[in-house]
Design a protein that fits this description.
The chain has 515 residues and is an all-alpha fold. The protein is 80% helix and 1% strand. It has helices spanning 3-14, 17-33, 37-40, 42-50, 65-76, 83-92, 95-120, 134-144, 149-170, 175-197, 201-240, 244-259, 262-291, 296-309, 318-333, 339-344, 352-359, 361-380, 390-402, 404-441, 444-470, 475-498, 500-513, and strands at 123-124, 130-131. Strand 1 and strand 2 form a beta hairpin. Helix 2 crosses helix 7 and helix 12 crosses helix 20 (404-441).
Length: 515
Amino acid sequence: MGVMDFVNWLDGLVWGPPIMILLLGTGIFLTILLKGIQVTRLGWALRYTFGKEGRKRRGEGDISPFQALMATLSGTVGIGNIAGVATAIYHGGPGALFWMWMTALFGMATRGSEGLLGVAFRDKLPDGTMIGGTFNALEKGLAEVKIPALARYLAATFMLIFAAFIGADAMKLGTGPAIGAWIIAILFLVLAYYLARGHAMASLGKILAILFSTFAAIAAFGIGNMTQSNSLALGMKVAFHVPYWATGVGFAILTFLVTIGGIKRIGEFTGYFVPFMAIVYFIFAIGVWIKFAGQLPHAIGLIFEDAFTGKAVAGGAIGTVIRWGVARGLFSNEAGLGTATMAHSAARTDNPARQGHVAMLGPLIDTLIICSLTGISIVATGAWKTGKTSTALTQEAFARAFGHLGEVMVIIGVIFFAYSTVITWNYYGRQNLMYLTKWITRDPKKFAKVYHPLHVGYNIFWVIFIYIGAVGGLESVWNFSDMMNGLMAIPNLLALILLYPVIKKYMDKFIQENP
C-alpha cells in the first residue's frame, strides 16, 4: 500500500460511519438542547432574514445577515446538489432522498449553533474586517468557558468511537499502513482521555484550532477550488465547446475580480448571484415536474416507502439507503463541517443568537429545497432505473423532459454552482490562512505588515489553482483535500458539543426577548 493508497483509506474512514455518527449525533443533541429550534423558530427566522430587518445595519460586522446567509449558500450549493443527490439515489435508491431530508432537519440546529459561535468569538483583522470561525471558538471558548462534565464525556465518547473504528480497520492493513492507523487510533484515545478528565482545556483548544485551520486551508484548494473548476470546465466543453484552457483563464479572471475585494465584495456579489442561480435552477426543475406531474404522487410515495424498506436497492438493504442518504446530505449542506462559522462571523449583528437564527436556514434551502428539486426530478422521470449516476443521471432526468435542452440546463446549473462555490471557499481558505499567520507571527504589528501582501498573494495563488483544476491536473490533490474536508468536522463538532452552554445561554435569552 503506497502513500496515496493510505490517503484513500483514511479518506474513506473519515467519510465513513464514525463521522456520520458524530455529525448526526451532534445535530440530534443540539436539537434536543434547543427544543427543536428549527421548527419552533422557523417562522421568525424566515421573517427576519428575508424582510427588511435582515438587510439593516445592526451592530458591528462587514455584511448584512442576509448577505452572510447567501455567502454560505454560495459555498454549499454546488456540484453536490446535482451530482451528489444523483449518486445517493444511484447507490441508495429513492429512499436515500428522505434520509437526506432528515439529515438537513437536524443539521439546521447544528448550522444555527455554528453561526452563533462564529459571532460570539469573532475578532478584527488589521483592515477592520471581522475574523471568526471554529478556530476562534476553540481557542477562546475552551480557555474562557468552564466546560461541564456532560459535554466532556459526550465528546470523549465520540472520540472513543473513532478510535474503535480505526483500530478495527488497522488489523486489516499491511504492516506499514497499520502502524500509521494505530498511531492515529492512539491519538484519538489520548484526546478522549484529556476531554473526559478536563485537563489542559485551553491548550487543547489551541491545538484543535490550529488543526482545524490547517485542514480547512488545504481543503479549500481541492474541494473548494480544483474540483469545482474542473467540473465547470467540463460543462463548458460539453455544452458550448469551449477549450479547457480558455475556461480556466476566464474563470480565474472572473474569480479574482470578486475575491480580491474581500468579504464585502463577496457578500455583495453572492447577495445577487445566489438568488439568481437558485431561481434559474428552480425554474428548470419545476419544468421537469410539470412535464411529469402525473408521476409526482407516485414518486413522493416511493421515496417515503423505500426509505424504510430499501426495496429499490439490490438485496433490500435498508442500511445502504440510510448510509447514502445521510452521507450525501451531510456533504451537501456542510452542517457540522465548520465552514458556516466563518461567513456568519462577518455579519452585522448585535447578538450571536440573532445570526444563529439566520444561519439555520442554510440546510433548509440547500438540501430540503434545492436537493429536492434534483432528487424528485430523478425519481419522477424514472431516470433512477437507468443505471446512470452522478451528473449523467441528473442530465438523463432533465433530458426526458426537454431532450438535449434538458442536458444543457443541467450543465448551466453545474457552471453556476461551481462558480459560486469557488467564490466563497476562497474566503474560507483565506480566513484560516490569516488565523494561522496571526498565530505564527504572535505580534499584531508584524501581522499587520504582512496582512495585505498575504491577501493579494493568496488570491493570485488561488486563481492559479483554478486554472490547474480546469485543465485536469493534480487529481491526487483532490483526494487528499477531500480527506482534509472531512477532518475539519472533528474539531468543529467538538467545539459545538463542548461549548453548548454558550449556545444555550445566548439562544434562551434571545428567544425570551424576541418571542
